[in-house]
Amino acid sequence: MQQSYNSQAPKKPTNVSINSDLLSKAKSLKINLSATLESALIKIVNEKQRELWREENRDTIASYNQIVEEHGTFSDDLRSF
Known about the structure:
By secondary structure, the chain is mostly helical.
């Protein structure tokens, strides 16, 4: 699957605000904050991009589904199930 971002891009330092108690517990559990945030952002970015793609293509998908409903698909006569 193609990644939605350049995984080879250089890392960039940034500041974030995190609940101090949560941060303390994460540090005591040796949780890698950068890796955890990056992993969570990958999931969220991918999800948001999928939602955006679906929204941008909603009308085309609906049109295609209508055509398939009315006329079937090319492989309808080839299937054995």
